[in-house]
Amino acid sequence: MLIGNKSDLEHRRAVTFEEGQQFANEHGLIFLETSAKTAANVEDAFLGTAKKIYEKIQQGVFDVSNESYGIKVGMTAAAPGSNLTQSQQNAKQGCC
After folding, report:
1. Does pLDDT of 35 surpass 70?
2. Cα separations (Å) of 44 from 11, 37, 68, 72, 91?
3. 68: CATH
4. Where in the sequence is the domain holding 17, given as residue range(s)?
5. What is the pTM of this model?
6. Per-residue pLDDT tens for 78-87?
7. Residue 95: inside a domain, yes or no?
C-alpha cells in the first residue's frame, strides 16, 4: 500500500493525486491519501491492507504456516517464566 499523508495540507502538496495513483498502479499497490489530523482514510488504510492480505491468504499466495511470509496466525503466548497475569498478557497483545 502506498499512502499519501497530510492530505489536509493541499497548499503544501508535492505530488498530485494522479501521480501517486499512477505510481501505485505501476507497482501493483493500493493507493490512498490520508490525514491523521482529520482522520480521513486512516481506518480505510488499515482495513484495506488487512483485506488484501486476507484475500491473498485465501488465494494461496501467502502460506500462513510459513512464518517467512511475515504472517503469524493467532495470539502469541507470554514468554516462559513471565510473571504477567492473563489479563496483563491480553492487554499487552491488544495493541501496537
Report:
1. yes
2. 24, 15, 26, 22, 24
3. 3.40.50.300
4. 2-75
5. 0.55
6. 555 555 555 5
7. no
